[in-house]
């Protein structure tokens, strides 16, 4: 069996400096996908070099798209148009990436060929019925394990019909999969969602020339459409910046400037939540880049107070709850997170994982059916935890280690390559101790 990387960290004070986080993962996936489906060339810069995005890149190469990489984060995609993809000669491996598997399913369901999608041990456990169901209603033939609800998924693509679909969950992956299938049909496809999930697909499809409409409660597209190649710059990932935002707030005498971070309102729940807790976060140099709002974020050590987090705030911060729970541990009072059952079906069950890690380090966290309750103890004693193979748990525990009394050992840390290559070096660079 593969030997898992393990790291031991000790507390740090006085975090200072400028941080540039890598490109946004959600936007990078979509840039690769939509540029591949466009007619003509697209140059992409700032693309995330994480393993998840490599899975998307390899998938489109396997589907016959030429993608040249000039250097690490600059690519030229030679788009083939919606009817130019080719049947892949082998199974497509989506690795650890739910976004890759679910969005590509929406694309492949309408393509006139056979394809098979698989993933790592974590992705193969994650629920796929949420996309199989609407795509099947559109006429797709998708087969999978566990009554077509888990990968590997086999897709026999073909002509689909448009649909009106009300999703029970606020999921950008579900919304995007249905819109991507819908734009390849003749007619109007509408997706309704209970709360607004991230809208990068809608924004970027419009940027590529697709007349897609967003309205309160959902989005609609009338197919068939054409995408035109466009040059695109990917902003820094707010989900990666979140680790440094929390570090900047809870470490004494910290001041960090996070440069060039995407602040799309459907993703900026972390800023709202940390400000509601009393955190000092300033937005500087606000601007728009390729249809996405971007800013520099200045964060300073602050006294935090526990709050209740639920409702529309949850999808706007869905990937940030592991690190929010660390902030909550260093706040006064109790933080209660509800309406967040989705956390149970991420790379791991993030409710159980976060509670077990914090309790292991001497904190006080209690799992709830749809969230967790964290008592702000103001300190962690230290100890040993595992990431459960989940990148966001590993990085959240690294932030906890900065303020723990004793050393923290984190087992299974190589998973950070999924979304944040260079995380450990960046963390070392801003430590002044
Ligand atoms: O569309 C996307 O890029 C993503 C959507 C979210 O998942 P859900 O759509 O399942 O909520 C999020 O957790 C994931 O990290 C990325
Ligand atoms: C849940 C995540 O990603 P995905 O669903 O794409 O695996 C994540 O990055 O936290």
Topology record:
Layout: E1 6-9, E2 16-20, H1 25-37, E3 39-45, H2 51-62, E4 66-71, E5 74-80, E6 92-93, H3 98-108, E7 114-118, H4 129-137, E8 141-144, H5 145-148, E9 150-156, E10 164-166, H6 172-182, E11 187-192, H7 200-207, E12 213-215, E13 218-223, E14 232-233, H8 238-250, E15 255-262, H9 269-276, E16 280-289, E17 292-300, E18 304-305, E19 308-309, H10 321-329, E20 331-337, H11 350-360, E21 364-368, E22 371-376, E23 383-386, H12 391-401, E24 408-411, H13 423-430
Parallel strand pairs: 2-15, 3-14, 6-7, 10-11, 18-20, 19-20, 23-24
Antiparallel strand pairs: 1-24, 3-5, 4-5, 7-9, 8-9, 11-13, 12-13, 15-17, 16-17, 20-22, 21-22
Bound molecules: shikimate-3-phosphate and phosphoenolpyruvate (PEP).
Subunit structure: Monomer.
GO molecular function: 3-phosphoshikimate 1-carboxyvinyltransferase activity
InterPro entries: Enolpyruvate_Tfrase_dom (IPR001986), Enolpyruvate_Tfrase_sf (IPR036968), EPSP_synthase (IPR006264), EPSP_synthase_CS (IPR023193), RNA3'P_cycl/enolpyr_Trfase_a/b (IPR013792)
Explained architecture:
It is found in: Cytoplasm. This protein has 13 helices and 24 strands. The chain is globular. The protein folds into two domains: 6-23 and 235-430, Enolpyruvate transferase domain (UDP-n-acetylglucosamine1-carboxyvinyl-transferase, Chain, Alpha-beta prism); 25-233, Alpha-beta prism (UDP-n-acetylglucosamine1-carboxyvinyl-transferase, Chain). Helices cover 30% and strands 29% of the residues. Strands 18, 19, 20, 21 and 22 form a five-stranded mixed sheet that branches. A four-stranded mixed sheet has the order 2-15-17-16. A four-stranded mixed sheet has the order 4-5-3-14, with helices on one face. The chain is α/β, with parallel strands linked by helices.
